[in-house]
Amino acid sequence: MTSRNVLILPGDGIGPEIVAQAVRVLDKVNEKFALGVTHESALVGGSAYDETGSPLPEATLTKAKAADAILLGAVGGPKWDGLDMSVRPEKGLLGLRSNLDLFSNLRPAILYPQLADASSLKPEIVAGLDILIVRELTGGIYFGQPRGIRTLENGEREGFNTYVYNESEIRRIAHSAFIAARQRGKRVCSIDKSNVLEVTVLWKEIMEEVAKEYPDVELSHMLVDNAAMQLVRAPKQFDVMVTGNMFGDILSDAAAMLTGSIGMLPSASLNAEGRGMYEPCHGSAPDIAGKGIANPLATILSVAMMLRYSLDAKDAADAIEAAVSNVLDQGLRTSDIASEGNKVVGTEEMGNAVLAAL
Amino acid sequence: MTSRNVLILPGDGIGPEIVAQAVRVLDKVNEKFALGVTHESALVGGSAYDETGSPLPEATLTKAKAADAILLGAVGGPKWDGLDMSVRPEKGLLGLRSNLDLFSNLRPAILYPQLADASSLKPEIVAGLDILIVRELTGGIYFGQPRGIRTLENGEREGFNTYVYNESEIRRIAHSAFIAARQRGKRVCSIDKSNVLEVTVLWKEIMEEVAKEYPDVELSHMLVDNAAMQLVRAPKQFDVMVTGNMFGDILSDAAAMLTGSIGMLPSASLNAEGRGMYEPCHGSAPDIAGKGIANPLATILSVAMMLRYSLDAKDAADAIEAAVSNVLDQGLRTSDIASEGNKVVGTEEMGNAVLAAL
Ligand SMILES: CC(C)[C@H](C(=O)O)[C@@H](O)C(=O)O
Ligand SMILES: CC(C)[C@H](C(=O)O)[C@@H](O)C(=O)O
């Protein structure tokens, strides 16, 4: 059997709490399905900075490169807001993405029927919602050079960043999107701002080119401002949306929030070999950290995604997803997704319930 | 009496139809309130390109510079999609913004109580919604240099744009936002991506600096991805949102769509002297152009905004807004905002109704 070595990165804020429950679930399916998964932990983000002076210590990066998959909680918090950009917790996350070449970020926005009430949108607008956002994660304006803040001749300062993509970068994320669409509704909508930004003119052109290799998948294009509107107006029109790093950051969060239960949504960040990092879509929620009330389900579902995409353990993934659904059917909810008539439970109780359902 | 010379730019798509109704309304209040407004028309956008080879002919720019205010319909459409970026209809609009230094774009997102049903959000989430988005309009990545598509040494192409702001650009839009907030709920939320983009680190810093001059106004900051989520989750938390050109494009469209009636929302683009260009928030809707069914109310309300902000004619502005409200009370709707029990009318009938109500 192949090695299955998982690196656990709890991170900051609620990270350690939710990851603890997800690891219990991983251990359980590991035993039940005899997966042979081993795991170890490492520091990342603000907690890594506090301990080592770096948000991405060498030791963590080395372990990450050796791992077959990574499970991340979340990074960041107001505690580190004053730090120089180069050592902020987010740099730990961005450093992992970039060093491991995790260019393909898959962010599903799915409405769980049991949680339909939690959405701020009308039920008929979101019932059955199932979108996949494919976000380019290692290029674009997040990593473009030159960047910085410089002083002009007149003594004023100027801040600048560079939004840049080359053909290969666009091509490989296009393939990710088309391949994902093949397993779903066979429709890709590429999001750009090609009426203003040259970089997205190239983006659009390469999407068209790659589309020719997937004649069974339909490609359409939409401007990013219109996409933001259409997500609010009629989100079910989308199957797969593919876009760059910055637009993807914005649109995937909006899409996740349409479901009203971002605490339920996992994500995967994959490299060309399908190795990847898995994490909840939500952040480190410093306001509720340490209170034992955070929702661990997005992290638990990230374990399922990890088993499916990187560890070739589809049955175990199915079992976790079924267990989560079962727990929701029982009416158990953490406070972020609770509505009238539900039993509100804490992080650990929710973990217990998923374990029991497995 | 000062001169009040208005330049009318019908533009493309539904532009000419909706502007025609707005001009009738302008003529009516001009007479009724003896405003002494004169107006003339000029070409812009795709229709200007078709006639002159340029989306912003010299003659139009000269007239625009001389005008006290500009009323624009909309520009663009699939007909011109294949054109080189430099002569696309959008360049007409961007050229006007930039040449007239219309850096301050005010985009209200208001829910008309009569149209509460039209929103895709639950009534309790949007009832009473009244947000003002202040978008920087002549800088940022829309105009940053260098930009383009170049061929790399390996033969591949690369697209690139530059997201850049200097202190003065940020400072003047900050003042716009704080001044606007003073006349409203006295809260400004500045939107950035300061955990990743240096240019927005400077943005955030200058916002803080300018805030000191407005001790009666509260300043907060939010990351753009979170802002997109919060607009969906709980939009009423915002009073004034201020942001750069690109984020403003995306967020203002999302905010407008929250109301479900983007066909109702006007916008103003002002320079340092308060001279400005007024236009509906919606686009040129080529799919319904020429059918006589487009909603002219956003353009009519843009006339009201113009009278208030640039032509010092508050009473006339109030009268138009009251007339629009009256027409909605009568149950008249264009098809984009109609729900059960409404009388559906066309563009011209809607214009007639507003004139009658005046
Ligand atoms: C924490 C931050 C750097 C990150 C991003 O902007 O990519 C986050 O918002 C995300 O979407 O994963
Ligand atoms: C037409 C286009 C160039 C324009 C923009 O992106 O600014 C439009 O979307 C807007 O918001 O006014």
From TrEMBL, chains A, B:
It comes from Marinomonas phaeophyticola. Mg(2+) binds at residues 225, 249, 253. Belongs to the isocitrate and isopropylmalate dehydrogenases family. LeuB type 1 subfamily. One of its GO terms (molecular function) is 3-isopropylmalate dehydrogenase activity. This is 3-isopropylmalate dehydrogenase. The gene is leuB. It is an enzyme of class 1 (oxidoreductase). Binds 1 Mg(2+) or Mn(2+) ion per subunit. The keyword Mitochondrion does not apply.
